[in-house]
Amino acid sequence: MASYVYTELQATVGDLRLVFLQPGSYHDVLRCNIHHYPLLEPNTPFKDERLPVSALQKTLPDGWTVEQTLDGRYLFMSPRHSGIPNSWKHPDAEYDPKAYELPEHSVGDSFALHVPPYEALSYSWGTADNEEYIHITDPASTHNTPAWLKIRKNLAAALGHLRYPDRPRTLWIDAICINQADIEERGRQVKRMSQIYPLSEKVIIWLGSESEDSKHALEALEYFSKQVEYVISHRWGDAPNAQEHDWWRDGFALPYDGKTWKSILSLLHRPWFERVWVLQEALSCDRVVLQCGRDTISWVHVRKALLVLRQKSSILPHDIRDRLFPYARGLMAPPLASCEHLFLWTRNQQCSDPRDKVYGILGLLDPRIVAKIEVDYSTPAWKTYAQLVLAEMEVYQKLNMINHCNMTTRLEGYPSWVPNLERPIEGANMGYLSIRRFYASARSSAVAKLIEPAYHLQVTGRRISTISRVSYDLTGTFVQLIEVVRDWAPKDPESNMYVSGGLSMDAYVEELVRGRTSDRALGDNPCPSIRRLRELLTPALASAELDDEVARAFKDCFFANECLFTTTEGYMGVSARGLREGDEVAVILGCDFPMVIRPGGSDRYEVVGPCFVHGLMLGEALKPPLEPPWKDALPVTKGWALPYFVNTETGELLKGDLRLGSLPPGWEEVTSLDPFLPPFVFENKDDGCISINDPRMSADAIQQRGIVLETLELI
């Protein structure tokens, strides 16, 4: 029997291949047919006829909120501390359920008869060792004679479990349905993943064969998931009809023994959970099941369980927390996650080709960004990563992708402003990239251009300060590093004043916890205030013993290959390792974190990496000072921390920034329902232009207010 030869897909009609897996028992020889079909968008896409959440919210009694869950249902969340369970039903029993209940529908209802219903397989390829064979007949082939194709062991095991005993099963499988030897076809099909998986009847996640404890892990996750709910505004609570009403609470310890935690950890270390490609496969369709051997569970149960478990990080077993914390970042996905957030996830995942760190999640990114990314496996990986920076600059006028840069993980020999996505992120500090918690450049628009052929990036910004002292590399918790904390603390906590105002001790404690305090938030917030942290830390600095309350209050103070630093001007900060004296702290337009840069002569600079610096995180470098009694606040709305202002004397909340004056003629701040944009954006009524940046924070407007900007060339 000959090796299988692929028949070319007709790109002009949107062809794809489907596998018709022939019936048989587990140990029978694997056989299939391959057919070509044009995969077109549905003629009549499913239309959600329910009221929008915003409209439904107006019908609720005081204290109630309505939110959308991970599986698209509307959850009515009861007033906090009321003791009333959350519900799938409107609090008004007379309200029409059609306004909020999700109707059942099948993707097949929207298709013409040009493609048969199919299931898409998501699995880990595994290694090329011990390959097996599948026998193929291709009616599109001129020969139409049986041939064989090598497939890897994990796929062979999956097909053995998935095939029916008495009828064919129609599947889309990347290793078979894409000619992996044809680079051009691979590139075209990669961009179609955002069609192939969502338009399938179902996505099957294959974790591998059953193990001794896999069934126990799946049962534990499923039961936990049925007790909790997670909504896309990044909130969680008890599920309607939950039997365990407190399991959703962050501080509630689950009654799991060592066997249960071990089984969950073993499940999370299966190869599927370590692969890049699988995330978009699992999240791009709402009909997904996870299968391990013969055992199955709804994927939404697993996703929800892991997201809520992540919130219990302070009381989880250490090995579970270390695995879950970086992985669960990806489970948020739009509209919960930013582009930077997803790349925090992908940097910890595995793939055989470094370009797949980008290509493997294109289906989850803003289509406007995807349109700027050329899928080309002949392009060097660093240029693929550079495309991300340039695409964000062009689409959003932002430069937040350079927050992924770090001197110690730099791609050697290539521009320092190009992030190295092949390596995990350096520093616990950068975990906050995903929360959109800071606005160092104050919602300004990037002013940047690529200088070729040198591939330098010319940006506009302001150099603020020069680093004068750097600690050694730090890794550990607050308790483990208490001597370093004492050594770097202000010498006179009660009187030393900070360069941007206030006590230096206040700046220091906020630096240690990377801004995770209640001072910037509104409403209920579990984080301690800056004042409380200062009151706890000040006596602890002089005490030989560390009080448990201090350790709990500083639980968000931990380091991972990071260092503390101070500047000649008096700023204090923290950044990933790689800093040295003489480096400079700059605020670059369009970049939400301050950036450490290294002078290279002739106004050229290398990117060292982002940093947290008290007094520079909320636009202070690009705006006039905020006069008392006003202070900045950053309440989180739908995953975005948006800038507000609070009058500390009256409690008045102000959304607009009085320092900036009125919006330019024709501009208006409007609500956005776009899942890839903030809840509030700016619209130019004259031309319909939508911007996530404040038109009052253009480079010209900033300079008109007396702030001096300069051009910096990043090399």
Description of the structure:
It comes from Trematosphaeria pertusa. It holds the Pfam family Het-6_barrel. The protein is α+β, with helices and mostly antiparallel strands and about 725 residues long. Among the domains are: about 1-45 and about 110-200, no CATH class; about 45-90, no CATH class. The chain is built from 19 helices and 31 strands. The strands form seven sheets. Strands 1-8-7-3-2-9-6-10-13-14 form a ten-stranded mixed beta sheet. Strands 15, 16, 17, 18, 19, 20, 21, 22 and 31 form a nine-stranded mixed beta sheet that branches. A three-stranded antiparallel beta sheet has the order 23-26-27, with no helix packed on it. Strand 21 (about 595-600) and strand 22 form a beta hairpin.
The gist of it:
This protein is 23% helix and 22% strand. The protein has 715 residues and is α+β, with helices and mostly antiparallel strands. Among the domains are: 2-43 and 108-200, no CATH class; 47-90, no CATH class.
